[in-house]
Structure formats: structure tokens, C-alpha cells
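Kindly review these C-alpha cells for lecture notes.

. . .
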Amino acid sequence: MSGDGAWTGGAVGESAYCVLAPNAGPMTLDGTNTWLLSAPGSEQVVVVDPGPDDEAHLERVVRVAAERAGRVGLVVLTHQHLDHSAGAPGLAARTGAPVRALDPRRRLGEEGLTPGEVVAAAGKGMPVLGICLGGQMLAHVAGGVVQESYGEPEAGSTPLTLEPAAADDPLFSALPPQVTAIEHHKDAITALPPEAVWLARSERCAYQAFRLGRAAWGLQFHPESSAEQVAGWDRAALIRDGFDPDAIVTAARRDEPASAAVWRRFASRFATVVAGEHRWAEHH
């Protein structure tokens, strides 16, 4: 964190470190979070989402890896957006580390990823959090159904209701039964994967959150988005979709004080899972 509270990356516990990429924008917010994970005493680091093909950023990732453990042993891509994945070939060339991804086109090496898999490397298991399109992709590759322009679109601050299974979930058990979150989607998950645990819904979209396996979560909503970002959305596009842009911004600003505290707690729990300080056995 910076002195004014803005996210700048850095250490999260003993086992995780975020190198913030210099690609701030509407999709990446402050920039892509490139995570470096390693257990204490490990000689290898797992890099999650190396970010853009930016030489200075990739060199910093290699330098931080050397300072924390020694070398990069594995690169993992959580989705195919270039702002998260474009740097993977460059990082692999610098380190010799294989690149694992769900999409075969993004892999460098023999191993891919399977839906819901917890990657074990450098002494750590690596959880996954797929947001919006990322959640839809996770559902799709695991055998669920995603439909284009399904039902009514959602935009802005939207009430969510937790499902009963959320009470026993490492992330969602920290949430109140009802909470608001920012939405902006037309496509929707219409059937969950067979092994998914259903965690949250909204009035227009049944499958707002789910979990696969022990530590792979899919979200339809945006826990990271703010009212200020909503204010910058394309007004003409919102009107075409049947929304009042001013009303959406007003609602987002009204709901943000309460919802932001909830999603900070949610993010803290996920960071704890990433850092390896959470133990699944405590919940099951």
C-alpha cells in the first residue's frame, strides 16, 4: 500500500508477494496483479499471471523471485486476457520455467491445467479466483453452460443473496446473507458444472458465485470495482441496454460504504488462502 491507501503491491504474509504491473486501465484497475508464491524455505517461486509483455515489469518479477526464494519454477495463467498473459513467453525465456494454463494455446511445456485443480509447486497449493468472464470461463471448461446475451443484463450495484453452502465456504462464510456488488454483463452462466458448489445468486442471474474443488472460485460480479469506475462507464451503451446512467452511479455511491468493507474482508480471506495460512481442514 502507498501512504494514501492505494494498492501498490508488495508482500501479503510470508508466502505471497504482488508485483503490480504498469498497465492501469478500465479492465486492470491499478494494474495487473502478478503474484509470486513460495513456501518459507522453498528455492522456487510460482508466478501467477505474469502480466503484460513489459521488459521492466518482467525483470522486476525475476528480481523479486530471486530475493524471495531463488528462481521461478512455474508460471500459471488464470485466464487468456493479454493484460495478464502476454508476458508469459518472455518470463519463460528469462527463467526456463514452464507455463501452465487451461487454454492449450497459452501453454509452454507439456502440462496444462484441469478445472478446479489446486496446483502444487514450490511448496504451495495455488487457489484461483475467476471474475466475470473469468468465472464464466471456469464454468465452461468444467462442464457448465454459458449463454450469450441471456436473460436481462445487469449493470451497477446489484443485491446478491448467499446460498446455504456459503456458510461453509472459506471465502463466503465471511459475508452477510445479503450484500451488493458491481455487475456489468449480458452473458450468463445458465448451468453450473456438475461438481460445483453454488454460493450466491441475484434476482436476474442465478449463478453469481460457485466453487470448484477445494480452492477455485468463479464470480459473475466484480468485488474489486468502485463507484468511481462505474461513473466512467459508456453512458450511451448503458442507455442502449435499458439503464439510467445517473441512477446507476447514484446507487453505486450509496451502496459503496457498506459493500466495500465486505469485499475488503473477502479479498483478505482470499489473500490468506493464497498465502497458505488458511487450512481447508478447519472448515471440513
About this structure: DSSP finds seven helices and 16 strands in the chain. Residues 131-282 form a domain with the Rossmann fold fold (CATH 3.40.50.880). The mean pLDDT is 83.
